[in-house]
Amino acid sequence: MPRLFFGLEIPEAVKASLLQMKTQVAGARWQSRGQLHLTLAFLGQVEEPQVALACDLARGVTRAPFELNVQGLGCFGSPESPKILWAGVSPEDQLREFQQNLANRLTNNGFTLKNPSFKPHITISRFRPPTGSVASLLESHRNTSFGTMPVKDFVLFESTPGAGGSVYTVLERFVLPTHTD
Q1: Which residues make Cβ contacts (< 8 Å) with residue 24, sequence separation at least 6?
Q2: By the 8 A CB rule, do 143 and 71 touch?
Q3: 163 CB-near residues (< 8 Å, 6+ apart)
Q4: Catalytic residue among 15, 37, 105, 141
Q5: Of 20, 25, 18, nearest to 136 (Cα)?
Q6: CATH tag, 3-175
Q7: If you write DSSP's letter for every residue of 48-100 in order, what string do you get?
Q8: Which of 57, 115, 150, 162 is most buried by a 10 A CB count?
Q9: Which residues pair with 178 in a beta bridge?
């Protein structure tokens, strides 16, 4: 069974900026260029026949394209013992509306999301204990701009575990309509 999630791809210029955050922090497993993305809806293991249904539901999402600013760093867990280091995006309201539209279409048709509470972010590092502090990194990059991200489409990714972390493969791309009637 494929392990799937819907997400946004990150433009190369933004990826380059985010990858510059890589520094020596105990326990950090920095994401590679190919691993940087923004998760919208994590489905987990999906039966093969359900993949087509997920794609059909995603095609029904209507939302005019919009733009996000990738700015600032945050973490899940405490800064002294982080679990995940991430970059934030704004404005969150348009992204949350878009994500909720997709999530509702999926959950109303039998899917259970593995990330029911949506916190818009781009993971740049995961941590294994013992972890070092990221407090100074958070402080020095609180308002750092990593660039803009046009949201003109979203994708269905397959996540395959690998030695260097998960490998993400785009299964299908869903283009947002330029106008909604």
Answers
A1: none
A2: yes
A3: none
A4: 37
A5: 25
A6: 3.90.1140.10
A7: HHHHHHHHHHHHT-----EEEEEEEEEEEEETTEEEEEEEEEE-HHHHHHHHH
A8: 57
A9: none
CA-based torsion, 21, 138, 31, 96: positive or negative? negative
- Helix locations, the chain, DSSP H: 12-19, 48-59, 92-107, 135-140
Rounded-to-integer distance, Cα 14 and Cα 23, Å: 17
Given the residues 15, 121, 126, 141, select the one marked as catalytic: 121
Catalytic (active site) residue 141: no
Q: What is the pLDDT of residue 164?
A: 83
The single-letter code of the amino acid at 34 is G
The residue behind tokens 């020596």 is 24
Which amino acid, one-letter code, is at 18? L
Name the stretches of the chain with pLDDT < 50.
Answer: none
Q: What share of the chain is helix, strand, coil (3-state, %, to 5)?
A: 25, 40, 35
pLDDT of the residue at 115: 84
Cα–Cα distances in angstroms (integers) from residue 47 to residues 26, 92, 107, in the given order: 38, 32, 15
Place of tokens 């069974």: 1
Three-class secondary structure of residue 43 per DSSP = strand
Q: State pLDDT tens for residues 78-107.
A: 999 999 999 999 999 999 999 999 999 999
Q: Is 37 a catalytic residue?
A: yes
